[in-house]
Specification:
By secondary structure, this protein is of the alpha/beta class. The chain is built from 10 helices and 7 strands. GO terms for molecular function: RNA binding; RNA methyltransferase activity.
Length: 270
Amino acid sequence: MAGTDRRFRDSALPQPAIILVRPQMGENIGAAARAMLNFGLGEMRLVAPRDGWPSESARAMASRADEVLEHARLFETTEEAIADLHHVYATTARGREMAKPVVTPREAADTGVGRVRAGERVGILFGGERAGLDNDDVALARAVVQVTANPAFSSLNLAQAVLLVSYEWRLAALAAGKATTMPPAPEEAGPVAEAAQMTAFLDFLSAELDAAGFFHRIADKRPTMLRNIRAMFHRADLREQEVRTLFGVVRSLSGHRQGTRGAKGGEKGG
């Protein structure tokens, strides 16, 4: 379909961050940028693209969606790319062992648009062409987005996946824009924790579990258990105050443990 009015993103549209994690080919990045702009989206984030950035092959494939590429932000890790976001979706065609809500692109768009209109920042993760997102990436998300596709051939091209999600996002945003009122946010709940705050807490919790010897007898299972712990907390959709409370709880337990050890050591020495 031809035709464009040369405007960049649709400024009236609630904008999610489209995050391409370790994309391999510049052509697919360019095609994803074109798909985004087709539906009024303009915020692209790139995590460690294999062939480096900027990319001439991406620009050539973008077919006049250069603005998306010019404003794309580059990150070394997925955690850095989502640090300022409140709610992250992970797109994947494969089943995972993590217990996370699984939604369709339409369901993700409906809830995601509502979150952006309420003042939160939303991101959608897309994996690389060869293997998609790895389990550590998926663990950072609050929910998984899956397309109801042919189970015998369910893997989508990167740009196809971006186009499908962008299309559903636009439909949801246009439908939400017709509403005259917004559902009020709970006054006492407070804002949702950003991913950076969640990462800081989970890193702190992991260090404290190591110090307490939690993984001592199951060292071989430590990576999987940590991934599941992270997924569990991300799934909880915690508020900023709740995360601060959890920081305090873990610090208190750590201090109590160290104090008890000190007291026992003093008694022994006496």
